[in-house]
Structures are given as C-alpha cells and as structure tokens.
Amino acid sequence: MKTQVGIIGGGPSGLLLSQLLHLRGIDNVILERRSRDYVLGRIRAGVLEHGFADLMREAECGARMDAEGEIHDGFYIAHNGIKERIDLNGLTGGNSVVVYGQTELTRDLYEARDKMGGNIIHNAEDVKPHDMTSDAPYLTYRSGGEIKRIDCDYIIGADGFHGVSRKSIPSDKIKEFERIYPFGWLGILSRTKPVSPELIYAKHERGFALCSMRSQQLSRYYIQVPLDNTVDDWSDGQFWDELKMRLPTEVSAGLITGPSIEKSIAPLRSFVAEPMRYGNMFLAGDAAHIVPPTGARGLNSAASDIYYLFHALLDHYKKGDDSGLDGYSEKALARVWKAQRFSWWMTTLLHSFPSNSDFDNHLQQTDLEYLFSSKSAMASLAENYVGLPF
Ligand code: FAS
Ligand code: PHB
Asked: Which atom of ligand 2 is nearest the CA belonging to 214?
C-alpha cells in the first residue's frame, strides 16, 4: 500500500490530523494497535482549550461538542476552608474553555473518519517505522499473521507515551527530559450531579482533590494518593469520605455520592523528548510529551502539535514549501515547554509533597496567597489555562 502520510496511533492526535489532512485531499492511513472499542473505553481528559475546540470545528467534528459540551468561564481553587474563583473570561478578555470528555471527542473523530471513508487499521500488531531518514520511509505491521507494508512520504508518531515511534529513534538523536511526581491521581466517574457548576481544584494538607464533570449527570472526581496505592485500596465509600475531608465544608455538604462506574489511578510525570522530528518522521502529542493533568494541558498540547503539523504538511503538498516541516519541532516545543511550566507550577502549587520542608510548605501557601492578591498573577494563570496562542 502507498499513502502520503502514515500515522501511528488512533488516539485524538492521530485522528484529528488524519481528518484535517483528508479534508484537504491529503491521503493518509492510521495504524492503531488496539480495537476501536478499547480506544473508546479510555477515560481521560475533560477540558478543551478554545484553540482545540476551534480545531475540532475546522475538522468538521465540532457539532456534538458544541451541542453537549459546556462553556466554562471560570473555575475555583479551594484552600484553607474557602474557595476563590479564577474568572477566566474576565481575565483573558473573553476567552473560556469547553468541558467535553476526551472519550466523546475521540468518538466524534472516529465517526467523522468513517463518514469520509478514512483508512484506519485497528488491531495492527508490531507496527514499525523504517528508513525514517530516507526519502522513502515505510511502515510495517502484522495483521492476521501476515506482515504488511505501507510506503509513505512522511510518518507521524501519534502513538502516545508507550508507543513505538519515539523508541525507534536512535538514543543519540533524541534527548529526554523528565520529572516523576511522588504521588498519583485516583479518579472516579459517577452518574451523579456535579457538586459545583464549575471545576474546583482543592489544596489540602491531606492532599490535592479535583471536582470535575463530563455533563450535568456525570461527575469526575480525583484525589491525590501515594504512589504505592492501588485501586483495590480504595472502596467507593473511602473515596467519598476522603474527598469530603479535602473540600470546604460548604462544598462537601452538597456532594452527591454514588457508585463509581470507572475507577483508576494515573501516575504523574512531566516529560519532553527533543527534537520532535527524526528524518521524515514527526512526533505529536503524548508520543513526545506528557504533563501532570493538574493544568489540563495534556490533550491540549497535542492539539497545537497537530495544528502545526497540519499546516506544515499542507504547505508542503499544496505549495512545495517545506519551511513548516523544517520548523515544526522548534515551534511545537516552544509551546510544549510553556505547557510543561504551567502544569508543573499548578502541580507544585496544589499538591502535598511528602518531602517538603516547613519552608517549602510556607512558600507554597504564600504562592497561593500571592495569586489571589494579584490580578496580574491571576491573569497569568488564566491565559495559560484557556490556552496560549498556537
Ligand atoms: P494517546 O495515548 O491518547 O493515543 C495514542 C494511541 O496510539 C492509542 O490509541 C494507542 O493504542 C496507540 N498506540 C500505542 N502504541 C502503538 C503502536 N505501537 N502501534 C499502533 N498504535 C499504538 N490530559 C488532560 O488534559 N487531562 C486529563 O485529565 C488527562 N488524564 C489522563 C489520564 C491518563 C490515564 C492518561 C494516560 C492520560 C491523561 N491525559 C489527560 C492526557 C491524555 O489526554 C493525552 O494528552 C491524550 O490522550 C493525548 O492523545 P494522543 O497523543 O493521541 O495519545
Ligand atoms: C477531568 O475532568 O478529567 C480533568 C479536568 C481538569 C484537569 C484534569 C482532569 O486539570
């Protein structure tokens, strides 16, 4: 098989790029290791920057997001028994975020690809990129016991943190930066009315908590847990009791609890691989970078990678201009590192660090007090949260 762009990974990054390229007549194929049901069974991000929402609309996949997603003009930070609001809309001259689950967004992208007859190969085993530094790179994969080959002009590694693309780059051609946090997030999904119309990020001496949602009937809650915890250490009742202890009394009094329909623990790490290009293979999304979810930047950083790659490939195929491709890694990394900084700062501000000294803890509380004492500080948080320009 021959295609123009071979994409490894059928998550949001790969799907969004595939849809944008196909709409402009650029042929592409997605190789996805898992089944579609498996991919759609993942519960992940919940907050979209306005730039991501615009890209979904440009990809003709935004209708359900606009119908069912919620526009949020602000969120709360709870600390010392009170909650204070960050007025995203007022502090950014009218910008906001869309609360719409990644699972639904991925479903919308799959439906759009099917409608256009997009070529997505599921259960593609042993996907491998080859001859990436040549003008004729290709992909191989195993399907039904047979090794198949796809010749392409370019390969996109959109296969997430555990994918094959980044690991196929010689170690002397890539540099990795990483910070592992000494805790994880235990998250649950429950068919209950959210405790608050807007998100609440809570800093508490017992640990961080987050009250989020997927709709007015579906709540998403998280609590910081030690790295050695497993889901089996936490019954639903224990989760609800701990969450209540970490929220201001007036908030926990209104918490509607119910059985968890999903419960999982995600480790927290900051990770960047540089450069995001190796020959004619380009990395995008979690394949190249990971952030702790505190700043809701994970999925949103993938969106700007896709935006840059889409326009770079368009310029190549439509104008013979390769400046976008040649500048992709530097341009994407400039925004990736700003998302890294913001995510690290939000994580450091709001979590309990077991190894913190009294000085560290005093500094952390002062950072929070300064934030709410300064419109400039809140505006800086807000402009990062709604999304820096692409
Ligand atoms: P993805 O990992 O989503 O997709 C990669 C795809 O490639 C997968 O479908 C995988 O099956 C496939 N693949 C992997 N290896 C392959 C191979 N060898 N061959 C073929 N296919 C292969 N972000 C937020 O903003 N907020 C959150 O709350 C949040 N929570 C998260 C919780 C968890 C547990 C995880 C893992 C991530 C979370 N994220 C969150 C980040 C997440 O949303 C990612 O940013 C987002 O999924 C990035 O999308 P992709 O780059 O497409 O990578
Ligand atoms: C979520 O709803 O899953 C969510 C929202 C905001 C975050 C992280 C996760 O910062």
From this structure: 2
